[in-house]
């Protein structure tokens, strides 16, 4: 799933190519991708892109016209991505086809623009066309952006929660921007168990978690600054120390990276670095062994 660093980089990449240019056409392969109907997606045609930025893990393409601002908001979900091209086909997308392309935006000179794609069979990618980003319910209910929190505000949020720290970091209603992959990296850097309870963390542990959150996310964001969108996925994988590295040695201590699996997701951790050597129960494996 694209998280804050990737979405930031994609937004900067698109902004450098689209800002100041008109949208010539928008093609939608599946209307189910669109979560709003007013304004219609055709309202974007002829409007000038003023900026591309992000809100948490949402891409926001801002446009201006005679009737004011209209925004195209995109959430890439688990398997979505953006693909820029200077040779887009002029043919409209075929609705209901097997192509991974869900949405295409033609912008600037003929052939220029980008596709929004989604791999796999679980279609969760979503797009909204709104006059105000607050009209997107998911955005209206977001917690504060993780990189905008002060150390004190971060500590206050943790002190009020009884949830496991892994769940808190990835709950977008509490703190927004962090997903499954970078929460694994943050907890490994902070040397904290994913199952630790937020409100029971010591002042020292809260400080370590705050510092790790900022360093992991900012380092990843800087790593993507000069990257092409097409290479970001592979660069993300090579930069991860524990996430998706089950069975491999921890780069810090050499212990074996372990995994805890759930119905539709999993997380990874190092027992030596994070849990005092204790191997956490893998609920999926426990059920299989019964």
Automatic annotation (TrEMBL):
Does the record's keyword annotation contain Glycosyltransferase? no
Which residue intervals define the domain Formamidopyrimidine-DNA glycosylase catalytic in the entry?
2-97
Q: Which GO terms describe its molecular function?
A: 8-oxo-7,8-dihydroguanine DNA N-glycosylase activity; class I DNA-(apurinic or apyrimidinic site) endonuclease activity; damaged DNA binding; zinc ion binding
This protein's UniProt keywords:
DNA damage, DNA repair, DNA-binding, Glycosidase, Hydrolase, Lyase, Metal-binding, Multifunctional enzyme, Zinc, Zinc-finger
- State its cofactor: Zn(2+)
Which Gene3D superfamilies does UniProt cross-reference here?
1.10.8.50, MutM-like, N-terminal
Taxonomically, which superkingdom?
Bacteria
Asked whether the keyword Transferase is assigned, the reply is no
* Every FPG-type domain range: 241-275
Q: What is this protein called?
A: Putative DNA glycosylase
């Amino acid at each position: 799933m694209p998280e804050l660093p990737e979405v930031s980089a994609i937004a900067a990449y698109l902004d450098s190519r689209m800002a100041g240019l008109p949208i010539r056409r928008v093609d939608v392969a599946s209307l189910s991708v669109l979560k709003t109907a007013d304004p219609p997606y055709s309202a974007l045609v002829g409007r000038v892109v003023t900026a591309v930025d992000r809100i948490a893990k949402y891409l926001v393409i801002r446009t201006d016209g005679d009737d004011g601002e209209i925004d195209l908001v995109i959430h890439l979900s688990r398997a979505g991505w953006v693909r820029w091209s200077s040779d887009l086909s002029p043919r409209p997308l075929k609705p209901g086809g097997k192509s991974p392309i869900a949405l295409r935006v033609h912008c600037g000179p003929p052939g220029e623009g980008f596709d929004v794609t989604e791999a796999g069979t679980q279609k969760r990618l979503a797009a909204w066309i709104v006059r105000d980003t607050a009209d997107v319910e998911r955005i209206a209910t977001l917690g504060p952006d993780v990189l905008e929190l002060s150390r004190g505000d971060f500590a206050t949020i943790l002190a009020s929660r009884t949830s496991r720290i892994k769940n808190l970091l990835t709950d977008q209603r509490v703190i927004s921007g962090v997903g499954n992959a970078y929460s694994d990296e943050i907890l490994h850097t902070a040397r904290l168990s994913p199952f630790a309870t937020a409100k029971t963390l010591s002042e020292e542990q809260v400080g370590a978690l705050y510092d790790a959150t900022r360093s992991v996310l900012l380092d990843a964001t800087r790593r993507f600054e000069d990257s092409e969108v097409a290479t970001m996925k592979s660069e993300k994988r090579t930069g991860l120390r524990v996430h998706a590295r089950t069975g491999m040695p921890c780069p810090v201590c050499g212990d074996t990276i372990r995994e805890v699996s759930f119905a539709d997701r999993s997380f990874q951790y190092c027992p030596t670095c994070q849990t005092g050597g204790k191997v956490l129960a893998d609920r999926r494996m426990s059920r299989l062994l019964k």
